[in-house]
Automatic annotation (TrEMBL), chain A:
Domain Penicillin-binding protein dimerisation: 56-195
Keywords: Membrane, Transmembrane, Transmembrane helix
The name this protein goes by in its record: Penicillin-binding protein 2
Taxonomic lineage from the root: Bacteria, Bacillati, Actinomycetota, Actinomycetes, Micrococcales
Domain annotation Penicillin-binding protein transpeptidase: ranges: 274-579
Transmembrane domains' residue ranges: 12-31
Source organism of this protein record: Agromyces allii
UniProtKB/TrEMBL annotation, chain B:
Compositional bias of kind Low complexity: 189-198
Annotated spans, Disordered: 176-198
Keywords: Membrane, Transmembrane, Transmembrane helix
Name recorded for this polypeptide: Cell division protein FtsL
Residue ranges crossing the lipid bilayer per the database entry: 39-59
Length: 602, 198
């Protein structure tokens, strides 16, 4: 003690040196464990203690209609798999009620054949088929431990298989998609493939809104009974739910429109038909029917060409419905009014050398612009159309929305083809574009053009999606600013002319909706054969809106190659039924005053 | 010690120095006179450790017990959510327009496409009334829905039966429980029952 007290610094130094050495040792060890060998050690620890990463499924967003009715929903399905190796090991033991004493149970031996038959009965196979799966897997690989019995079975089947309690059968969750309304809107919705990838329609086009992300967790279970030890869960990746997509479609109306369209398609033996219903004041699509329609629950049942939405993807030469666009352009440019006059021949030799005829024979006729529309005279329309330059008409077409994809941006949506513009039009095309041949448009573009006329000359962006609400409740909606295409007066006068087409045209008895003022125009267009000529088939169409005194709804009908009735008389009943249904459904008050009468001839 | 007076002579304040000396020069305590550590302290310290260890043990047991409880609840939650999914799928498909239309047709209803309204404020009839035309067109095949194939229509159900979908909902411990079946539907086919007032 004396010695130490004589050299107090030595003692402190010795202790200090020991301390420093110890600390350095610890730090080195710490860095070694925590940094240098960290990943290896973690892996080693995880192997021993932790579970494999367990997927946490994010829910793909649902698609609902304007009223919140679910059109596409995420559901959990299950894949049933078995272990052939273990199945072959021997019969099962199972507790069953004792026939002698119902209170007690006895252990009975269940042979593989019986288990296979029970399992097969639930998933819709015979016992032999299940045994066949086991046998063929074992033939390939005697140690085979995995074979699917059934994929995507529903919850009910899952519960039944669970109840069988077969140790060599495993069921894996498999998120899937269900479309409770079947083919209602199936053309628009598209579907999702078995592996969870969007395949078509809005599922594909709006995947950014709908898609979810799966997460991953691990935890440390108790070795004895596999129960999670509290506080050991590690979230490696947070699962993320998809957003909810709301459409402007009304599912009830959509069903009714599809029903009407399909009934007429079958009645007239047509290849396909499309019907578009649009709100005149907002450009929102209320129903878009494409028949035949795919049932997204079972897309394979429908011919692959019929699985999409032709309204958006199949451009056609619109024919006479396009004359309304020409007339509206003339009105807006101040070159004509409903009573402007021409003398139209049956066959017209245009100054530039083009030649074309009307679809019906007539002597030289003194048509007003209204009359040109009522009788759908190509020559009269052309004589009026000459009053505008080709460039002017081209610009109007573009302003009406032709030649570019609509704001909907549907997957594989077509832009239609204006054949380049006036510089590239040949002499014949310069005239035929006045009455809707020599250019192509989609059904939705035609509907949008009529919406522009119905809405006082203001074209609203075509809207199919009301908005997307993401998992955090934040809603994004598409832009809805209208653009003026023609003056209000031009729109009103065009509307009045179309009303006279409705009241005086040759279909006036076929499409009458008592009590309402309706404006409409038919079209019977030849279909290009792709080699510069035309096929013998026609695409018949009707587009119009009602009530004409205060337009609310635009309906556009196209029927392709109606073999039993190859004229627009095939599409008129569809227009009449759909428009009646729309007016009735939305409680539209019937018009008071009758339509103004405009003379067709002078 | 001999250096002290020198330091004291140098120091300017002798009074302070005198007060300082007794503090530094204290007699070393006698070793034997040190008080013995009392047993009580040891008891308190050891029992504290024991109590802490016990508490930790109890907590750990409680947490573990909770783990099993949570596991049990999670299992039943999974089962219930499966049941909920089955039921909501059933509900969604019997809500579908196809199913409603088929039922309406089975009950002999026909659509009247003619829009007419009765204005309640003055009793005015808006539009031109017309009788519903045609028979009930079978719409089932026009707008397909594979989900409702095999679901019995309201006319095909006997009293007390509910619309279970292709065996859906069975085996869930009688989860699909609805109040009594709707009143017997009017006979399908033939003429519609019409009111006698006009």
């Amino acid at each position: 003690m004396n010695r130490i007290s004589r050299h107090p610094m030595r003692r402190v130094l010795a202790a200090g040196v020991v301390l420093v050495v110890l600390v350095v040792l610890f730090v080195v060890r710490l860095v070694d464990i925590q940094v240098v060998r960290a990943s290896a050690l973690n892996e080693q620890a995880d192997e021993v203690r932790s579970t494999d990463p367990i997927p946490v499924y994010g829910t793909r967003g649902e698609i609902v209609d304007r009223n919140g009715i679910v059109l596409a929903d995420s559901v959990m399905r299950y894949d049933v798999a078995l272990s052939p190796k273990n199945a072959k090991k021997g019969p099962l033991m199972r507790e069953e009620p004792d026939p002698a004493d119902p209170e007690k149970t006895v252990r009975v031996e269940v042979p593989l054949e019986q288990t296979a038959a029970e399992l097969g009965a639930i998933v819709g196979l015979t016992g032999d088929q299940v045994l066949g799966i086991i046998a063929s897997e074992l033939a390939d690989d005697p140690d085979s431990d995995f074979a699917y019995v059934a994929k995507l079975v529903d919850v009910d089947t899952y519960e039944k298989i669970r109840a069988l309690d077969i140790p060599w059968v495993v069921q894996y969750p498999h998120p899937s998609r269900s479309y409770p309304n079947g083919a209602v809107g199936g053309n628009l919705l598209g579907w999702v493939g078995d592996e969870g990838t969007a395949q078509a329609g809005l599922e594909l086009g709006q995947d950014a809104c709908l898609a979810s992300e799966d997460g991953e967790v691990t935890y440390i279970p108790s070795l004895q009974d596999w129960v999670e030890i509290p506080g050991t869960e590690v979230v490696h990746k947070q699962a993320k739910d998809g957003g909810k997509l709301q459409l402007t479609i009304d599912s009830d109306l959509q069903w009714e429109v599809q029903r009407i369209a399909e009934a007429q398609r079958l009645a007239v033996g047509a290849e396909w038909a499309t019907v578009t219903v649009m709100e005149a004041k907002t450009g929102k699509l209320l129903a878009v029917a494409d028949v035949p329609t795919v049932d997204p629950n079972d897309p394979a049942a429908t011919d692959s060409a019929d699985r999409g939405s032709r309204t958006f993807t199949a451009p056609f030469e619109p024919g006479s419905t396009f004359k309304a666009v020409t007339a509206a352009s003339l009105e807006d440019a101040g070159k004509a009014n409903p009573l402007s006059q021409v003398i139209a021949p049956y066959s017209y030799d245009a100054p530039n050398g083009a030649n074309f005829r009307d679809s019906f024979y007539h002597e030289d006729t003194p048509y007003t612009l209204t009359g040109a529309l009522i009788d759908s005279s190509n020559t009269a329309t052309a004589k009026f159309g000459e009053l505008l330059t080709d460039q002017q008409r081209f610009e109007y077409m573009q302003k009406f929305g032709f030649g570019r994809v609509s704001e909907v941006g549907f997957p594989a949506e077509a832009s239609g083809d204006l054949n380049g513009g006036p510089d590239e039009w040949d002499n014949q095309t310069k005239y035929t574009t006045m009455f809707g041949q020599g250019l192509t448009a989609t059904a939705v573009q035609i509907a949008s053009a009529y919406q522009t006329i119905a809405n006082g000359g203001v074209r609203m962006p075509v809207q199919l999606v009301e908005g997307c609400t993401d998992a955090d409740g934040e809603t994004t909606s598409p832009d809805v600013t209208g653009t003026r295409v023609i003056s209000e007066q031009a729109a009103r006068e065009t509307s009045e002319m179309l009303e006279n087409v409705y009241t005086q045209g040759w279909l006036k008895d076929d499409w009458r909706i008592p009590g309402y003022r309706v404006a409409a125009k038919t079209g019977t267009a030849q279909v290009p054969d792709g080699n510069g000529g035309y096929r013998t088939e026609y695409l018949v169409s009707v587009s119009g809106f009602a009530p004409a005194d205060d337009p609310e709804f635009v309906v556009s009908v196209s029927i392709m190659n109606a073999v039993k009735m190859n004229s627009s008389a095939a599409s008129a009943p569809v227009f009449q039924q759909v428009m009646s249904q729309v007016l009735k459904k939305y409680r539209t008050i019937p018009s008071g005053a009758p339509a103004p009468d405009l003379p067709a001839l002078w | 010690m001999s250096a002290l007076p020198v330091q004291g002579a140098l120091a300017p304040a002798p009074i302070r120095r005198r007060a300082w000396i007794p503090e530094i020069l204290r007699p070393a305590p006698d070793r034997a006179a040190r008080p013995k550590p009392r047993l009580a302290y040891a008891v308190i310290a050891v029992s504290g450790v024991v109590v802490i260890a016990l508490a930790q043990l109890m907590l750990s047991i409680a947490v573990t017990q909770g783990a099993y409880e949570i596991d049990g609840y999670e299992l039943s939650q999974a089962k219930l959510s499966r049941q909920q999914q089955t039921l909501s799928e059933d509900l969604d498909r019997v809500q579908s327009p196809q199913y409603l239309a088929q039922n309406a047709e089975a009950l002999g209803m026909v659509p009247n496409t003619n829009p007419v309204f009765l204005r309640l404020s003055d009793g005015a009839v808006l539009g031109q009334p017309a009788a519903a035309g045609g028979g009930a067109a079978a719409s089932a095949s026009l707008v397909p829905n594979v989900l409702i194939s095999g679901v019995p229509l309201v006319t095909e159900q006997t009293a007390g039966e509910t619309a279970t979908v292709g065996g859906q909902g069975a085996g869930l411990g009688g989860a699909v429980v609805e109040p009594a079946a709707p009143a017997a539907p009017p006979p399908a086919g033939g003429s519609l029952p019409t009111p006698t007032t006009h």
